[in-house]
């Protein structure tokens, strides 16, 4: 089994979307003083590699706690824009895609789409109840058109609009 980490590392001072909260990580308990370590994390729900709930961009959209858990994982492929998109499979784009690709994407009914997607495309996909992942890392490590198991589980945030995830691609053979 081969596992490829598709997640950005969360750290102090990392880039965030303009207007989103800055990331701060502080140590509040230490081994030397408390005999255990605890850190305080302050960040937005769309920090680093993250998943977007439908409610992120649509008032009547489902929140993280309302979206079925199985929509956050499943078979996926890294797409080559010159080839047909597979049906009912997660689509991962290493190349930038925008609203011009919307019809081709929704036609194949993916449970989720991730990678280099424009904000307008993200908004349109979320309206169609297609989960979106942004700020995925190491996409060039994924072979094009080779199926893999994608896992990008959100934190269990009540009424969550999005969540950082540890996104991975799992190749079983």
TrEMBL record:
Pfam family, one: Cyclase
Coiled-coil stretches: none
Domain of life: Bacteria
InterPro entries: KFase/CYL, KFase_sf
Designated name of the protein: Kynurenine formamidase
Species for this entry: Geomicrobium sediminis
Taxonomic path: Bacteria, Bacillati, Bacillota, Bacilli, Bacillales
